[in-house]
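Please, structure for the following, as tokens.
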Amino acid sequence: MTSLWSAGVAGLITAIAIVVLRPLAVTLDFIDRPGGRKTHNGEVPVIGGLAMFIGVVVGLGVLLYDATTNVAPLNAAFGLLVVVGLFDDRFGLSPWIRLPVHAAVALLLVEAAGCRVTTLGNAFALGDIQFAGIWVYVASVILIAAAINAFNMLDGMDGLAGTTAGVAITALGWVAWRDGDTQSLGICAVLLGAICGFLLFNVPMAQNRPLRCFMGDAGSTLLGVAVAWTMVRLTQPGSGAHPGISPVTALWIGGLPLFELLWSFLRRVARGGSPFVADTEHFHHLVIRAGYSVRAAFILFFVVAVALATAGLALESAGVPAYISLLLLACAGVIFVCSMYRIEKLLPWLPHQARRTSVS
């Protein structure tokens, strides 16, 4: 009940913050305008990330006011990413400014929050892969920064990043509930509450268009580090909770942003470009370009995210070895990427549109 109450508070505060911050966003020009890669309709305030941050901080305060868990490092990490994300949303920062911040956030979580990647399990049929010493920091920074950037790349269509993060947090919360980890469950509930509060203004439906807003880089990076922190907490020994799932299962739960990150990196490098330079071949671009409606694309990606998370949890429950699970995940990724380039032939029954999009 405490978790539900805290989640409700986080969602309510997030929704109120969005309404209150809209005039300030207009005054300070935190507005996303169509043009270039951004083909959404109208000028949209970019305040969702800041609103979710406020909701999460308040929700965690309600949840843990009498608990021993120290969430100050987590809130500090969220705050740093949101501040830098807001500057990026407003002025457009270089990747060489953002990436060191992501690394600094990862180090903060490693040192102050015990968010340490010490094992990958038996992911490659070579026995348990363990990290020690400096390699704990290297692995932790790489994986946390990768999650931050994966959600940043995924955020480009109404409802996509928020719903994908919501699915991942829900799956991780279920693991915490199954294992009796009440503190992890409560934190997942607060995160999910804030995400739902934001999605009220971002899911592609006609009813929320007058108050529509985007999360921006402030929101996508916040969601990325939140999912990464929760995954580490539930997969790594000594991270503050009893490991409930294997690291490979966590990759299944975050499968959609993982596919986006890896394919974007490989595609750009293979073409001789920088992996940090944005393009128009993200999965949502491909689906919209094929003529599907934003709502149809949203439903498609939601189903994929749920299917990947469910498959990963089912494989672990069935006792499938981690290295086989990883091989199946790689196969699923290849099939998914190939399908995105043939989506119109594979799913001709999905609703099409007359090139009216909400992609950014």
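Residues 1 and 359 are 38 Å apart (CA to CA). DSSP finds 14 helices and four strands in the chain.
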